[in-house]
TrEMBL record:
InterPro entries: NTF2-like_dom_sf (IPR032710), SnoaL-like (IPR037401). SUPFAM superfamilies: NTF2-like (SSF54427). It comes from Streptomyces malaysiensis subsp. samsunensis. Residues 11-108 form the SnoaL-like domain. This is Nuclear transport factor 2 family protein. Pfam families: SnoaL_2 (PF12680).
Amino acid sequence: MTRDAELPAVVDRYIAAVNARDWAAIAPCFTDDAEFWTLGVRTAHGSARIAKQLRESMGALPETYDEVVRVAVDGTIVFVEMVFRGRTTAGNAFEVNAADVIELTPDGSAITRVAAWFDSAQRPT
């Protein structure tokens, strides 16, 4: 396992697209049969559904940003620890500790699965 590794290119593109709210750029980061699991949210299946679910869930928060804190890579498994910051529609700032476990295709060109974890006690309200 490589700790403090660089983000694989496809994971970097995915996080950049989420931070930019570039919903059209998210789907190409995933395989057609990918799945995206988030604590407390129905699992999304397929690249288009993943992009749609992210757009819908983030739409309730007018301002968000994932800051990558630490990365570890073991073959096609990528662990990304981050701080998710933003503002609610009421203008309240929030900060949530989070971690994504991301699985890649064997060649590392696309994401096949994301398990997104966060500290639910810090969930924005």
